[in-house]
Design goal:
single chain, mainly alpha, 3 helices, rod-shaped
């Protein structure tokens, strides 16, 4: 469907003759959205209402996609933060152990 953009500024398009028309939901909205210069679709004029419906559908799809990206990034940040906390804890434990060993060495040296 995204290959519709390759058709550029086509003025007319017969989507009903394409296999994708029955396979993809909202195929007409997709065609209207990506073929911005489309004036006729399946032999009927492309109306302002059709354009508005297509724009609304894909704007919402884009919002949903961006929300998914944000959620994924948030989860990644949470995972990295947790890993950082674990590393900091391990480093503190190693530093405490090093200090204990250093104390033992100092008391044995005296």
């Amino acid at each position: 469907i995204l290959d519709l953009r390759l058709l550029g500024e086509s003025a007319g398009f017969q989507l009903s003759r394409q296999p994708v028309a029955t396979e993809a939901p909202h195929a007409m909205d997709t065609a209207v959205f990506y073929l911005r210069g489309l004036q006729v679709l399946n032999g009927s004029p492309v109306t302002a209402e059709m354009r508005s419906t297509a724009d609304n559908r894909y704007q919402q799809d884009e919002v949903n996609a961006l929300q998914d990206v944000i959620l994924g990034k948030t989860r990644m940040i949470d995972a990295v933060s947790k890993e950082r906390e674990e590393v900091v804890k391990a480093l503190k434990e190693k530093e405490d152990h090093r200090r204990q060993v250093e104390k033992i060495w100092q008391t044995q040296a005296c």
